[in-house]
């Protein structure tokens, strides 16, 4: 495992709402994020702690999670309540791209990417638990996560992978030969081949991560894939995952009713297309908790969180 370095905070930016779960940067360095109340915001001026500009792009009418900017001023949104959405950033128009799959209501969409040919890939974290009970899926270890594909011009998603442990972040390789899928519940990144002799097959990409991976983000095609770690590994949870299904199910019922407070230990990783960790940044006692996303903007790293009411701006690591 790559030797960790310190995650150094610059400042915190309140944005007037809770839960900026995913953060993505546009070509001008502005950051888009979705909140618990359904708003999608565009944040500018994050380099300065006292002069950020917060603009409401639209309201989805649900709970936006993963975002993907498109070249034509469009935005793909995984909405945990409404399915896969398309947003016109210029006028805020929202349309449903897909809300069912194989006759089943599409819920808990998590993260999305679009490739150069227009094909859209997105994840569903759980078929058993809704977003507000996400911890139940982590504890029960249901393995009901999915990877889906939506072909250009289609409104019918295709299931590519099943049996994923809380499928979450997505990122393509630089040459678009494979996708990297974050499995939060298994603390690993999985590679799914799109082309070549292994097309349609999955394999481990980065295993035994030091924490639970959440959203993934890739800026420049030749840059690394940034991985947010929503929480550290929990040895008792690893042990519970080896118990019988009945034991895990009983533990999940307790977990969804118990008060939850995220750990103060936070971290982010950057990996290359060979599965090598090129950056590992951590902070053991952070006031900004449950880092569910990270992107590069404003000359640093911007952190999002399902838990917080703002975003954190941190120092970017030195280039290797």
From TrEMBL:
The keyword Glycoprotein applies. Residues 116-196 form the Strictosidine synthase conserved region domain. The lineage of its organism: Bacteria, Bacillati, Actinomycetota, Actinomycetes, Kitasatosporales. It comes from Streptomyces resistomycificus. PANTHER family: ADIPOCYTE PLASMA MEMBRANE-ASSOCIATED PROTEIN HEMOMUCIN-RELATED, STRICTOSIDINE SYNTHASE-RELATED. This is Strictosidine synthase. The keyword Phosphoprotein applies. GO terms for molecular function: hydrolase activity. Pfam families: SSL_N, Str_synth. Belongs to the strictosidine synthase family. Keywords: Glycoprotein, Phosphoprotein.
């Amino acid at each position: 495992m790559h030797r960790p370095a310190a995650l150094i905070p610059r400042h915190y930016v309140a944005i007037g709402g809770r839960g900026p779960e995913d953060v993505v940067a546009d070509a001008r360095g502005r950051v888009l994020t979705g909140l618990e109340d359904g708003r999608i915001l565009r944040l500018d001026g994050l380099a300065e702690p006292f002069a950020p500009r917060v603009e409401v792009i639209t309201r989805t009418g649900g709970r936006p999670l993963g975002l993907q900017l498109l070249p034509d001023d469009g935005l793909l949104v995984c909405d945990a309540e409404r399915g896969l959405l398309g947003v016109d950033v210029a006028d805020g128009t929202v349309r449903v791209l897909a809300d069912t799959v194989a006759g089943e209501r599409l819920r808990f969409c998590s993260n999305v990417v679009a490739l150069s040919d227009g094909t859209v890939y997105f994840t569903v974290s759980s078929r058993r638990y809704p977003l507000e009970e996400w911890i139940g899926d982590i504890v029960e270890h249901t393995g009901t996560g999915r990877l889906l594909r939506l072909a250009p011009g289609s409104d019918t998603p295709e299931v590519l992978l099943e049996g994923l442990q809380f499928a979450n972040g997505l990122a393509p390789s630089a040459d678009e030969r494979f996708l990297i899928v974050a499995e939060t519940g298994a603390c690993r990144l999985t590679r799914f081949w799109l082309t070549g002799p292994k097309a349609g097959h999955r394999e481990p990409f980065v295993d035994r991560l030091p924490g639970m991976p959440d959203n993934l983000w890739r800026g420049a095609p030749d840059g690394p894939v940034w991985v947010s770690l929503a929480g550290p590994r929990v040895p008792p949870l690893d042990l519970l995952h080896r118990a019988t299904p009945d034991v895990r199910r009983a533990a999940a019922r307790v977990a969804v009713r118990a008060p939850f407070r995220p750990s103060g230990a936070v971290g982010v990783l950057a990996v290359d297309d060979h599965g090598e960790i090129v950056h590992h940044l951590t902070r053991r006692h952070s006031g900004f908790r449950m880092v569910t996303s990270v992107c590069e903007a404003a000359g640093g790293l911007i952190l999002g969180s399902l838990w917080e009411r703002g975003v954190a701006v941190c120092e970017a690591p030195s280039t290797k």
